[in-house]
Amino acid sequence: MSDKYVNDVFNSDLDAFKQSGIQTASVTFSGSVAAGGEVVLTTSPLTLNNLDFSQILFDNSFYHPGRYRNMALENATMINETTRGSQLQCNVAQVVNGNTIQLTATLFNPYDGAVTLSTTTINFLYIPYQATL
Amino acid sequence: MPQSKQSLTSDFDYLKIAKDDTITITTGTPSDSDFAFPTDPFGGFGFGEQGYATISHNLGSVPLVRAFIQSVGGLWYSSYQQIGFIQIDPNLLTLVSANDLKLCVNSGSHQSNVPVFYRIYKLGTTAIDSDDRIDKIFLKSDPASPTSATLGPCTFSSDNVQTVVPIPHNQNEDIIWTLEFSQDGNNWYNDGSFIYGGPDTGSGPPGGPYAYYYYCRAYGAADSNNFYIRFEHNYPTSITLYARWSLDYRS
């Protein structure tokens, strides 16, 4: 095949980063959590499409919708519960397996009674990129 | 036909630098609700100060942002505030929306003129041209032979074992970096994140909940002549961790 239409047209000394698209995934907390119960929500798998680096951002529909935090700097967010009027910590993490990545959100109810969660969606942005050096 | 100055174009997916700068932030009384509990569980040490900067990028969508803070030991950091026994104080938090980047410096006590570097990228599929700014990577780990370190066993899961691998870059100037690490050399995780194993079943009642889970992690730091990778774990056995990285210039 001719390389006339190959994407790499201009290649003088571009030791830079190339992006590989943005993928999105989300989880939603709602309903009640039993006393001492743990809820683990996992996104559908996202495809790892390069061998280099990535950044994962997340928002929180209850506390900061559309305003994304960096998972490398913060690995938790809060989920409001209406039974006692408190907030429960929700840890976010990544699970990488071969050519897929999933994001998990884990919440624990430390109380001796069930609590009802405010419906809260956590949206993740997965931004992979590649170092071309 | 008018001449276009955009005469040379490239592959369509290089990350374009939309905006970057080194700024200083001075802390004071916390006042931004985006970085206050419960909106931000890491927003402040509970007793300290915060300082802010808002950068308008007006890109219309959430961009990629790389941000770094000069903190403990004069080193630059770009990951989670608590690394084992090291409390990164002051530390950096970011919040990015379709039009703005907010930077927050948390500190346990008053801090003046804390250096912060940020770089905002325009994401998209348009070609770069000679007017665009892109990164200049000058060093990268060998994909076939990532940096590795073997750490000894950790006696208690509530504790941890760490080791630091220095990588001289000898640029005599502050740089920025990207880092990922792995427990098996195949599955890679971001700088500062955790790879969790199972629980230490001795740290709670039968069936749980358990106080401690086994984990490993790694994070980067840098000064003007060295890049440092700190590896950490709390497993009761020795483990080997791997890192791949690239270093690039700020300007």
| β-sheet strand percentage of chain B | over 45%
* Percent of sequence in beta strands of chain A: over 45%
CATH topology annotation of chain A: Immunoglobulin-like
Level-2 CATH architecture of chain A: Sandwich
Mean pLDDT of chain A: 87
Mean pLDDT reading of chain B: 89
Order of helices and strands of chain B: EEEEEEEEEEEEEEEEEE
Number of domains of chain A: 1
Q: Most extensive interface: pair and counts?
A: A-B, 52 and 62 residues
> How many E-type strands of chain B?
18
- Coarse structural class of chain B: mainly beta
- Show unreliable segments of chain B: 3-7
Structural commentary:
The complex is a heterodimer of chains A (133) and B (251). With 133 residues, chain A is mainly β. Chain A has one domain (17-131): Sandwich (Immunoglobulin-like). In chain A, 0% of the residues lie in helices and 60% in strands. The radius of gyration of chain A is 19 Å and the shape is elongated. The two termini of chain A are 26 Å apart. The model of chain A is unreliable at 1-11 (pLDDT under 50). Chain B has 251 residues and is mostly beta strands. Chain B has no helices and 18 strands. Chain B has strands at 16-25, 49-56, 64-70, 76-77, 82-83, 86-87, 91-96, 100-107, 114-122, 137-140, 147-151, 161-168, 175-182, 188-190, 194-199, 213-222, 226-233, 239-249. In chain B, the strands form four sheets. In chain B, strands 1, 3, 4, 9, 12, 15, 16 and 17 form an eight-stranded antiparallel beta sheet that branches. In chain B, strands 10, 11, 13, 14 and 18 form a five-stranded antiparallel beta sheet that branches. Mean pLDDT of chain B is 89; it is low at 3-7. Chains A and B meet through strand 1, strand 5, strand 6, strand 7 and strand 8 of A and strand 3, strand 7, strand 10, strand 13 and strand 14 of B.
